[in-house]
Each structure stands twice: as structure tokens, then as C-alpha cells.
Design a protein that fits this description.
mainly beta, Porin, 16-stranded antiparallel beta barrel, globular, signal
């Protein structure tokens, strides 16, 4: 079992990033902000995260360097758990192309367990219509049993997006997820995106995702079928108005857990972002999903998250 980050991907991520390369000059501006994340599922598991950020180098919401403190709170029925996390964060992303890199790394303590966390990705264009993204994530598994036992995961992989003419884009993802309890998962995803009108912001999407677990017995720590797959048809919409950007994604799908009969899935996500280079930055996102979990195919999950940053 591997409990450390995969060195090959991490080396690629760091080598490809602008660390040690010429980057945009540091800004004289600073920033401070706050972040919020709330979620609840139909099994009664609730997550609340409150964060404060100090950004000694702040150009805009996608180009910053700073530190974040996060207070975590989990609850389910009579059980509760608190956690504290301190992290360094850096973003250097081109708003026009989404190329660039970001990293969030720190120490997360909960229930007497300590974990070095990492959330990073790097994206670059390989050709005019081809993009590559590398990503890595290390964090706790957020269920009651997993938090009590200190179970964490390392998730890493790559995605490739290829434009097929002006209206069609194909995206493929391959990833690996190693759990600290010895379980391993292989992930694969495909997404076909069709944009019928280039100036309308509307997309029609066909999505497929699957994963395979090396072990089907994790002693109830988290939902872990041996095999899982989902196919979904979705509609996406993106609209800019006076610098503000609104997004919407809605989808209906079918899933299969091991050899069980197929069942329905649903997805709804909404997003709102203020003008990027304004004196204050606001990002909001919320969503609802229906999929499978411990108690069957009707697992329902809702979340709301936001980040506010002010320049000074």
C-alpha cells in the first residue's frame, strides 16, 4: 500500500509548473478573504467548513499567493467531529485559457489524526485545440467511520481535452486513488461536449464514468463497490453579463453498482462569479446530486460553497 504521493506524477506536476520559471511579477496589492462550504446528505451527514485567508500577493482571484486557516465541523446523528487546517495556497491561471497551475497544501488535524494535505493541478495547451491537465489530491475520507479511523486517500491522474472542429470537444480522464486502508481504485471518465451555437454559451454533454476497487471489504468505512459506472446526458449553460459569469449544469443518468439493476442518477449545479479583477471578488457554487451509497441507489447530496476576497 502506498501512503505517500506518487513521486512520478508529483515530479511531473512540479516540473511542468512555473516554479523556477518566469512568472507574472508580484503585485503590490494584498488581499484578505473568507470561504464557506456546507453540505448535507439524506443519511444525515453534515459538513461545515469556515476559512479565513490572508494574501500578501494578490493580482486577481486566479493569481494570488497566501495562507488559509480552515475550521472543519462534521456531524451525523449524535456524533460530531471538529478539525483544524492550515494551508499555503498559490494560483497562477490565465483567465482567458484556463492554462496555469494552482496548489493548496498544508496540515489537517482531526480526531487525534494528522495529515499533510495537497490539492494541485496544472494545465497547459499542447496544440491549438488540445489541452493536458495533471492533478493530485490528498485528503481525509469524509465519513464518520473513516474520520474516526483516520482513513485518507491519494488521488492523482491526468485528463486530455481535444477539440474536434469548432463545435465538439472530447475529454478523457484516467486516475488512480490509493486509500490508507490498502484499497485501490482505478478511475476512468469520458465526456463529449457539443456546442450548437458558439455565442450562446449552451452545451450538450454525454458523460461516462467508471471505477474499479481492488477490495470490496472496507469494513463499512465508506461506500466502496467493486465496480461502478454511470452514463449521463447533461445540458450546460454559461452566460456573461457586465463582467459577472453565471453557470448551470443539469443532467440525468443511469448507474450500475456491481451486478445490481441499473438505477437513475441526477445532477444540478449552479455557479456565479463576480468580475475577476474587481476590488472585491465573489465566487458562489451550489449543487444537488442523486446517486448510490451504503443504503441503496437513492443517495442524495446537497452542497453550497463560496469565496470572497477583498483587495487592499
Amino acid at each position: 500500500m502506498k501512503t505517500l504521493l506518487q513521486p512520478t506524477l508529483l515530479a511531473l506536476l512540479l516540473a511542468a509548473s512555473p516554479l523556477g520559471q518566469a512568472a507574472e511579477p508580484a503585485s503590490d496589492d494584498q488581499g484578505a478573504g473568507a470561504a464557506l462550504f456546507l453540505s448535507r446528505d439524506n443519511e444525515g451527514f453534515t459538513t461545515r467548513r469556515l476559512a479565513l485567508e490572508y494574501l500578501p500577493d494578490y493580482q486577481h482571484a486566479d493569481a494570488l499567493t497566501g495562507v488559509r486557516y480552515t475550521d472543519h465541523h462534521y456531524s451525523q446523528n449524535d456524533w460530531q467531529r471538529d478539525g483544524q487546517q492550515i494551508a499555503l495556497l498559490h494560483r497562477q491561471i490565465d483567465p482567458a485559457t484556463a492554462n496555469g497551475w494552482q496548489i493548496d497544501t498544508g496540515l489537517f488535524r482531526q480526531g487525534g489524526h494528522d495529515l499533510l494535505t495537497l490539492d494541485g493541478n496544472y494545465r497547459r495547451a499542447l496544440a491549438p485545440r488540445t489541452g493536458l491537465e495533471l492533478f493530485v489530491n490528498r485528503d481525509w475520507v469524509e465519513t464518520q467511520n473513516s474520520l474516526d479511523r483516520g482513513v485518507h486517500f491519494n488521488y492523482w491522474g491526468a485528463s486530455l481535452d481535444q477539440g474536434l472542429g469548432e463545435h465538439v470537444t472530447l475529454v478523457g480522464l484516467a486516475a488512480r486513488q490509493d486509500f490508507s486502508d490498502g484499497n485501490e481504485r482505478s478511475h476512468g471518465r469520458l465526456k463529449l461536449i457539443y456546442q450548437p451555437w458558439l455565442d450562446l454559451g449552451l452545451t450538450l454533454q454525454a458523460r461516462y464514468r467508471t471505477y474499479h476497487s481492488s477490495s470490496d471489504d472496507v469494513d463499512g468505512a465508506y461506500f466502496n463497490p467493486k465496480n461502478y459506472d454511470e452514463s449521463m446526458l447533461a445540458v450546460g449553460w454559461r452566460k456573461r453579463l457586465q463582467g459577472w459569469t453565471g453557470t448551470l449544469t443539469a443532467g440525468l443518468g443511469r448507474q450500475q453498482v456491481n451486478d445490481d439493476p441499473r438505477s437513475n442518477t441526477r445532477l444540478l449545479e449552479l455557479g456565479l462569479q463576480s468580475p475577476l479583477r474587481a476590488q472585491q471578488s465573489l465566487r458562489l457554487r451550489g449543487g444537488y446530486s442523486q446517486s448510490a451509497a451504503f443504503n441503496g441507489p437513492d443517495y442524495r447530496y446537497r452542497y453550497l460553497q463560496g469565496e470572497w476576497i477583498a483587495r487592499f
